[in-house]
Amino acid sequence: MERRQGCLQGLFELFLLNTLFDWLQRRFGFGRGCSCFGCGCGLIPAIVFILLFLSTCAGTDWTRLF
Hints:
The protein is mainly alpha-helical. The protein has one domain (7-58). 58% of the residues lie in helices and 0% in strands. It has 2 helices and no strands. It has helices at 7-28, 43-58. The chain is elongated. It starts with 6 loop residues before the first helix and ends in an 8-residue tail after the last helix.
């Protein structure tokens, strides 16, 4: 039987993911440094953020508290 994480753990992971994404955007985000393929290096962290966000939301059992 597969045990999935609970609601609070999922919310905590989303909080950490958001904090990490904000830090990456300030350091390497859109308008910072050289551009990657003309769309800015912020595109790479944005794609990674979307993938991690979707995997966190899909792997969380939102009916369990812990």
